[in-house]
């Protein structure tokens, strides 16, 4: 399952949002997801050098994130007691980051930050520099559904559905009642809070529709379809792609997921794959 994170759409200048995003990246890495970051650019600029040694349009792998407590001798120079650091690897082996905390910035290979030794971190960056220079992160989630596994396992549910014109008006606007004529799936979260991952994939056709999905909380005793607008708990982006991925955390209760196309008249078959960290029921 693939997830695209566009950094400019996140409020990463806020300390709280920065910490939430750090925890997300760490959780993804701990779950053995594959993370690749890139500096977005026009086609003609791919492969050209950006500021401080980075290459535009070139994929760098993220292999570690850490919160580092600074030694007292460095706190005055850095101005912080703690840094969020990101370690990257360059699969091409050419052109390195030359900015702060890089090997070429007057730091020995065995330089210590707190108790961490970054002897092998050839591309290490402070979180602020990472957000400043990189545009997107692509995350490939490897859903482990095996019960006999030491890694975190997920409960998987798969549904097949179809968008069709008969009896349905496509509309992504949650304030429009036509959105409720799309297929709906009901989810019960039994734990106090649970992380879920949703992958919506459309079947091959003459063209790719612009697709996305919405999740809203409903009454715990609800048994039938939703027909009246409610506050959204989560809304994905709407993109013209074979598939779209989203992840969020839900508190205990009942929810409805609605996969939709953006434009009226779009039709096609789709598949929804749902992963929950704890046992949950779908219908």
From TrEMBL:
Ranges annotated as spanning the membrane: none
Keywords: Hydrolase, Protease, Thiol protease
Keyword match Signal: no
Entry GO terms, CC: cytoplasm
Active site: 58, 90
Annotated PROSITE patterns: CALPAIN_CAT
InterPro entries: Calpain_cysteine_protease, Calpain_domain_III, Calpain_III, Calpain_III_sf, Papain-like_cys_pep_sf, Peptidase_C2_calpain_cat
Pfam families: Calpain_III (PF01067), Peptidase_C2 (PF00648)
Record carries keyword Protease: yes
BP GO annotations: proteolysis
Domain Calpain catalytic: residue ranges: 1-143
GO molecular function: calcium-dependent cysteine-type endopeptidase activity
Similarity-based family: Belongs to the peptidase C2 family.
PANTHER family: CALPAIN, CALPAIN-5
Protein name: Calpain catalytic domain-containing protein
Organism whose genome encodes this protein: Potamilus streckersoni
């Amino acid at each position: 399952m693939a997830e695209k994170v566009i950094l400019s759409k996140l409020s990463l200048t806020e300390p709280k949002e920065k910490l939430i995003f750090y925890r997300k990246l760490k959780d993804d890495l701990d779950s053995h997801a594959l993370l690749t970051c890139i500096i977005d650019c026009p086609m003609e600029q791919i492969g050209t050098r950006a500021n401080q040694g980075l290459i535009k349009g070139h994929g760098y792998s993220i292999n570690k994130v850490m919160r580092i407590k600074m030694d007292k001798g460095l706190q005055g120079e850095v101005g912080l007691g703690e840094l969020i650091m990101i370690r990257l690897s360059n699969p091409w082996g050419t052109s390195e980051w030359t900015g702060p905390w890089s090997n070429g910035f007057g730091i020995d290979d065995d330089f210590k930050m707190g108790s961490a030794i970054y002897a092998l971190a050839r591309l290490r960056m402070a979180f602020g520099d990472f957000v400043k220079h990189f545009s997107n992160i692509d995350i490939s989630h490897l859903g482990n559904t095996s019960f006999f596994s030491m890694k975190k396992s997920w409960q998987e549910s798969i549904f097949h559905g179809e968008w069709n014109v008969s009896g349905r008006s496509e509309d992504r606007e949650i304030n429009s009642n036509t959105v409720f004529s799309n297929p709906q799936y009901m989810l019960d979260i039994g734990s106090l809070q649970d992380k879920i991952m949703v992958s919506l994939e459309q079947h091959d056709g003459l063209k790719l529709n612009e697709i996305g999905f919405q999740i809203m909380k409903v009454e715990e005793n609800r048994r039938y379809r939703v027909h009246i607008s409610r506050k959204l708990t989560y809304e994905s982006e709407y993109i013209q792609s074979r598939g779209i991925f989203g992840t969020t955390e839900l508190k205990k209760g009942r929810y409805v997921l609605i996969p939709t196309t953006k434009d009226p008249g779009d039709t096609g078959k789709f598949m929804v794959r749902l992963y929950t960290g704890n046992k949950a029921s779908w219908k």
